[in-house]
Amino acid sequence: MSTSAHRWMMTAPKVAMVHSAFDPFPPQPAEVIVEVAGCGVCHTDLGYFYDGVRTNHPLPLTLGHEISGRVVAAGSGAENWLGKSVIIPAVIPCGECDLCKRGRAAICRAQKMPGNDIQGGFASHIAVPARGLCPVDEPRLAAAGLNLSEVSVVADAVTTPYQAVHRAGVTPGSLAIVIGVGGVGGYCVQMANAFGAKVVAIDVDPAKLAAISGHGAALTLNPKELDQKALKGAISKFAKDNGLRATEWFIFECSGSAAGQLSAYGLLVHGATLCVVGFTMDKVELRLSNLMAFDARAIGNWGCTPEHYPAALELVLAGKVKVKPFVEAHPLADINRIFEATHHHEIKRRAVLVPKP
C-alpha cells in the first residue's frame, strides 16, 4: 500500500522535533495501522521533552500516547478491526503473561506504551497491537457533539482518572478531593462526580477552579488563600454541612507537584485513601507513620487497563463527563510551537494535534 505517512521525531531533549516520512505498511500479524485523527499533548510528553525523563525506546522517537483514529490496514488475526474508528490504549498490556492473567495488567512487564516503548501518535499513522483497542461508535459520537480527534484524550486524561476512581472504591455519598484540576485532574473531578461523590477541587489557578466549578466540583479551594490547617478545616466544614463522613475521604493527587503531594498527604483522615495520579521528579519529605495512625492507605495509579476504556468512553458519550470544553485542536505541523506554549502554560485546555486540516 502506498502512503504519504509522516511523523515528528524527538531526537534529543529540548531540541525541536523533526518532520520525517515513513512507511508503516504492511502491518505485522495481530497488528493494525491506524490513521491518526488526533493525539493529545500530555504532561508526560512534556516530561520526556523538557525534563529529561527517559523513554524506554531510544531516541529518535515519536512521542504521543493519547490517540484516536481509523484502522486502515490490519495484519492477520486483526482483520475484524479494518475500517473501524478506535481509541488506542495509552498502555497496551501483553495479555499473556502471569501478571495479565492474574488481573495485574497495569504492571505487565511486556506492556507497550506509544511514545515511550514504541513509536507514538504525533504522526499521520501509527502501527500498534490490535489487542485492547477501544471501538468508537461515530454516530453516537456525533450525537454527543464530538468528533473523533477530540476523544483522543480518552486514552489517558479520561481513562486514567476513571481507573483511579474505580480502584479507590468511590461510591455514592463519598467525599472526594482532587488536587490539581487541569488536564487529568479536571477529568478526575468529573469522574468522581459521575461515580456519585461530592467533589472538592483544589488548585492554585483561579481560572482552572472556575472552569471546573460547573463540571462536577461542589466546592473549589485555592491553597494560596488558605494554609494547610485552614484547607482541611474548610473541607471538614463542607463535609459536615453536606451530611458527609468525617472519615474515609478519597484524596486524588493529580497536580504532579511537590506542593500538591504535600498538601494531599496533609489531608489524610481516619480511613482515608490517598491515590497518587500525577507525576513529578521532585522529592518530598513525609511522615509515613500518619498512614498507620489514620489506618489509611496510599495507592499509585499507572494509566488505565484496556478493559475499562469502554465504560469510561460511555460516560463521555452519555454526557456525564464533558470533553469538548477542555480540549482545543491544533495542526500537527505546529507541534514545536504547541509544545512550547503548553510548557509555558499559555494553553489552558488540552491541546490535541490533528494531522489533517
Number of helices: 11
Q: Mean pLDDT across all residues, rounded?
A: 96
The residue ranges in which pLDDT falls below 50 over 5 or more consecutive positions are none
Beta content comes to 15-25%
Query: Judging from the principal axes of the Cα atoms, what is the shape?
Result: globular
Number of strands: 15
Order of helices and strands: EEEHEEHEEHHEHEHEHEHEHEHEHE
Q: Specify the structural class.
A: alpha/beta
The residue fraction in helices comes out at 25-40%
Radius of gyration: 20 Å
Main β sheet profile:
7 strands, mixed
Tell me the span between the first and last alpha carbons.
23 Å
Structure overview:
The protein has helices at 43-50, 98-101, 138-143, 159-168, 184-194, 206-213, 228-241, 258-266, 289-293, 309-317, 335-343, and strands at 6-9, 18-21, 31-40, 66-74, 85-88, 125-129, 134-135, 175-179, 198-202, 217-221, 250-253, 273-276, 297-300, 327-331, 350-354. It starts with 5 loop residues before the first strand and ends with a strand. It has 357 residues and is an alpha/beta fold. The chain has eleven helices and 15 strands. 48% of the residues are buried. Helix 4 (159-168) crosses helix 5.
